[in-house]
Amino acid sequence: MSSKNLTRCGKTEFHWGERTYVMGIVNVSPDSFSGDGASDIETAVAQAYRFVDEGADILDIGGESTRPGFSQITVEEELRRVVPVIERLASRINVPLSIDSSKYEVAKQSLAVGASILNDQWGLKTEPKLGELAAKRNVPIILMSNQRGLF
After folding, report:
1. E strand or H helix at 12, and its extent?
2. Phi, psi at residue 23, to the nearest 5°?
3. Nearest to 109, CA basis, from 142, 75, 141
4. 106 and 79 in contact (C-beta within 8 Å)?
5. In angstroms, rounded to a whole number, what is the distance separating the alpha carbons of residues 26 and 3?
6. Rounded to two decimals, what is the model's pTM?
7. Cα dihedral angle (39, 45, 47, 51), rounded to 10 degrees?
8. How far apart are CA 82 and CA 132, in angstroms?
9. What are the mean pLDDT values of the chain's consecutive 10-residue runs (151 residues total)?
10. How far apart, in whole angstroms, are the C-alpha atoms of residue 52 and residue 54?
């Protein structure tokens, strides 16, 4: 397979086109769009372990809901929700961790404690510096296209 179909995340290699990869979504938010949000670190960590046991290839950790009618939270609140979860998981699981955030400081601190992928729900529309951060840290970035939102 050519290197253009290869993405490295830490020790993990994704060979796109060879098989389907599964991302487990860990919402550390009491108002998650899916209704399964964890309101504490222990619940989020347990959910993450379960997803890995069930075959997830990537875990996406998010602390701010983007459901219809959501309310934005502060950087400090989002950090309080996601950083401890990433810290607990980073050295204990063998799948890459993605931080689902559109906030530069949340992404930066999450990468510092073990995340290896950035996932921006707003596609760099609210924080273009996330692209620079991904390039600087040499990590993949997922750009979502949210049709509703902050604009």
Report:
1. strand 12-15
2. -105, 125
3. 75
4. yes
5. 30
6. 0.88
7. 150
8. 21
9. 76 91 90 62 93 97 77 91 96 95 96 96 87 96 72 47
10. 5
